[in-house]
């Protein structure tokens, strides 16, 4: 690349900034998807015709900004957001640390996007989207009901796959089936009463208060690819945050 960074890059920018912009473009395009690591620092230095020190600086900055994950002895990878620990932050569950709750997809259907779903996904109201109804269980006890919407045709493979092949975590399935890597998400909490359908799944009464968690998930390219509403019993809710 002659040390020029991305084609069309502003030549007035410092060299390391041009290389950083180009690597970020490639990260957002999922060039290193799956288990693929980025090339070694020496290979990137040769590709961009820059020093290894400059490559290391760029990778360190992209890792600090949340785009990459550097694993000692293994290499550098596109960072995958992990949200299973948020369940432990919000709901009291007792078990082995790192244990993943069971999941059951109870329903899957193509539906027209209602107004709030359409706004969250950035599509026109009434556009066909894929809806999943999922139940999360801890030691066989239901504790969370999730309504999940994802855009079509991006998630056509998820609409067609045998659901027995989808594991307890959806985001790895998103990547494997649709090539979608979740980079970040925004969550908003509110309190409401249980609907008859949710009450039946959580085995609670209609007057039991629920915590509702609305999540909007995005790729590293800031494309919204999931809107999710999760419902859990308020009596099991806890909020924990570490402030330094």
Automatic annotation (TrEMBL):
<dbReference type="InterPro" id="IPR000524">
    <property type="entry name" value="Tscrpt_reg_HTH_GntR"/>
</dbReference>
<dbReference type="InterPro" id="IPR050679">
    <property type="entry name" value="Bact_HTH_transcr_reg"/>
</dbReference>
<dbReference type="InterPro" id="IPR028978">
    <property type="entry name" value="Chorismate_lyase_/UTRA_dom_sf"/>
</dbReference>
<feature type="domain" description="HTH gntR-type">
    <location>
        <begin position="13"/>
        <end position="81"/>
    </location>
</feature>
<dbReference type="GO" id="GO:0003700">
    <property type="term" value="F:DNA-binding transcription factor activity"/>
</dbReference>
<dbReference type="GO" id="GO:0003677">
    <property type="term" value="F:DNA binding"/>
</dbReference>
<dbReference type="Pfam" id="PF00392">
    <property type="entry name" value="GntR"/>
</dbReference>
<dbReference type="Pfam" id="PF07702">
    <property type="entry name" value="UTRA"/>
</dbReference>
<dbReference type="InterPro" id="IPR036390">
    <property type="entry name" value="WH_DNA-bd_sf"/>
</dbReference>
<keyword id="KW-0238">DNA-binding</keyword>
<keyword id="KW-0804">Transcription</keyword>
<dbReference type="InterPro" id="IPR011663">
    <property type="entry name" value="UTRA"/>
</dbReference>
<protein>
    <recommendedName>
        <fullName>HTH gntR-type domain-containing protein</fullName>
    </recommendedName>
</protein>
<keyword id="KW-0805">Transcription regulation</keyword>
<dbReference type="InterPro" id="IPR036388">
    <property type="entry name" value="WH-like_DNA-bd_sf"/>
</dbReference>
<dbReference type="GO" id="GO:0045892">
    <property type="term" value="P:negative regulation of DNA-templated transcription"/>
</dbReference>
